[in-house]
Design goal:
single chain, 380 residues, alpha/beta, Rossmann fold, 2 domains, 6-stranded mixed sheet, 4-stranded parallel sheet, 13% strand, binds pyridoxal-5'-phosphate, pyridoxal phosphate, pyridoxal phosphate binding, lyase activity, L-cysteine desulfhydrase Cds1, lyase
Length: 380
């Protein structure tokens, strides 16, 4: 039998896929940033009063853009590219209390993309300066609750992509590992006397970091529990207690990076074992005491984390228990010289931090907790 003649070539024009070339290069740049980064330190300061309870501080202030948001920004941009939402020339837009925007501005510049940060006018001067130095533009709104709609509007006007950390933080981070913050912490704990800490303590902004830690604890079947810290002017704590995600409040949190006026989609209460809402004066007092103790200035959210850790340590001591506690240094105090480190600012806010600092120092020196010092959780 003679073979049938071949089909003629179909007239099927195929696209050049220049966008894919761009995405390939962009992903290479993001992987490069990760490859050139070392793991962050897990500090182990020794306080005599905490004898028998080892405490660890995961220092996220040493990333190239100064906070734990360096990890998140890289993940969010990677997520956008890999989902086909970010391409050559896409304007990146974010709603932020500042740290995320600083890190995203850095990555936008690395990729040659325009960047717009939508923030409240009260955002620290240092963060605004950093965003602008990375070539980003700042768009200000008056209230924390206005950032979401304003960011979406800027994205619509520019034909850009709203990165939306508050929605995507929990899913842009690989929950099973890939060097996420939880995997890094537990790997660094592996050879310690108590490799499974009793508690990891973390405050919530997007809720993404606590979601990653809580999921990872379950995935690795660890005995560690997760305590999430909330602050004044925020709804996370009430939402957790009442099981109500629809709660809102109008004021903005005074502690930059944490506390939100709505229950962010990335906050996952089901993986949280305990929550406490702490007074801002206590958080700022703890921030200053910790900064003195470790010879480096930390930010306000780190103060909230550290106060939560001290409360749990006090409880463990009262029960005669030993073990380990872990929390995070989220960013450096250099961003807050005009606010939390300014005595004038603290006084103008009506915050009385001196007696709280004294009580906390006494606890760290002697282990004696002063229940009347105004450091404890706020009542429901
Ligand atoms: C974002 C942020 C947090 C909270 O982390 P989330 O993962 O968003 O909950 C804490 N401190 C600072 C300084 C932050 O920027």
């Amino acid at each position: 039998m003679t073979p049938a003649p071949c089909d003629p070539l179909p007239d099927l024009p195929l696209p050049d896929c220049v966008e894919q070339d761009w995405a390939r290069r962009a992903v290479g740049l993001l992987h490069g940033d990760a490859r050139r980064s070392a793991d962050t330190h897990l500090l182990k300061p020794v306080f005599p009063g905490l004898n028998g309870i080892d405490i660890y501080l995961k220092d996220e202030s040493t990333h190239p853009t100064g906070s734990l948001k360096h990890r998140l920004a890289r993940s969010l941009v990677l997520y956008g590219i890999c989902n086909g939402l970010i391409g050559a020339g896409t304007t990146l837009v974010e709603a932020s209390s500042g740290s995320t925007a600083v890190s995203e501005a850095y990555f936008a510049r690395l990729l040659g993309l325009p960047f717009v940060a939508v923030m409240t006018r009260s955002t620290s001067r240092q963060k605004v300066a950093e965003i602008e130095r990375f070539g980003g533009r700042c768009h200000f709104v008056e209230r924390a609750s206005e950032v979401y709609a304003a960011a979406q509007a800027v994205a619509d006007q520019t034909g850009g992509h709203y990165l939306d950390q508050f929605t995507y933080a929990e899913r842009a981070t690989d929950w099973r590992g890939n060097n996420n913050i939880a995997e890094s912490i537990f790997a660094q704990m592996a050879q310690e006397p108590h490799p499974e800490p009793d508690w990891v303590v973390m405050s919530a902004g997007t809720g993404g970091t606590s979601a990653t830690i809580g999921r990872y604890i379950r995935y690795r079947a660890l005995k560690t529990r997760l305590c999430v810290i909330d602050v004044e002017n925020s709804v996370f704590y009430d939402a957790y207690r009442r099981g109500d995600r629809s709660l809102c409040c109008s004021g903005g949190s005074r502690i930059e990076g944490i506390g939100r006026p709505r229950v962010e989609p990335s906050f996952l209460p089901a993986v949280v074992d305990h929550m406490m809402r702490l007074p801002d004066a206590g958080s700022i007092a703890a921030m200053r005491v910790l900064s003195d103790g470790i010879f480096r200035q930390v930010g306000g959210s780190t103060g909230a984390n550290f106060l939560g850790l001290c409360l749990i340590a006090a409880r463990m001591r009262a029960q005669g228990r030993q073990g380990a506690l872990v929390t995070l240094i989220c960013d450096s105090g250099a961003r807050y010289v005009d606010s939390y480190y300014s005595d004038d600012w603290v006084a103008a806010q009506g915050l009385d931090i001196a007696p709280r600092m004294d009580a906390l120092r006494r606890f760290l020196d002697t282990g004696v907790w002063d229940a009347t010092a105004g450091l404890g959780p706020l009542p429901d």
